Structure formats: structure tokens, C-alpha cells
Amino acid sequence: xxxxxxxxxxxxxxxxxxAWRPDELPGAPVxxxxxxxxxxxxxxxxxPLAAPPPAAVPAGAPAATPAAATAEPKAN
Length: 76
Hints:
Structural class: alpha+beta
Radius of gyration: 26 Å
Distance between the termini: 61 Å
Oligomer: single chain
Shape: elongated
Number of strands: 4
């Protein structure tokens, strides 16, 4: 499993500890080793990334028509 170890400070008891953070679950709750308090790290508090805007078609370029691309040629 890929991930990193990060240092955290418990907001309840104030102690500093190191915890393993998997890359797949950046917003998973963190549990303090000393007092057992569960809290969210800064990755969980960040807003989700916005999807990139769709690619714009340049002005003057012909728009592709899906019907023309899938049409079969007529038999004579």
C-alpha cells in the first residue's frame, strides 16, 4: 500500500505523534495514540478538486457530427 508517514498534533491533548497516511484515503480520520481522540487531518478539510472545463471547439472549425461518423455507405 502506498502512502507516507506524517506528524500530527492532537487537538484534544496537544501531543505530537506520527501516523501512516495511505495515498488512496487522504481524508481518513486520524486517531491519537495517546488519548484516543479521533479527528480529521487537513486533507479531509480541503474542498474536492473541481473537474476541468470541457475543451472548447475553436471558432470556424467544423463540428463533428456523430451520425455521419457511424453512417454506413449505401449499396448500389
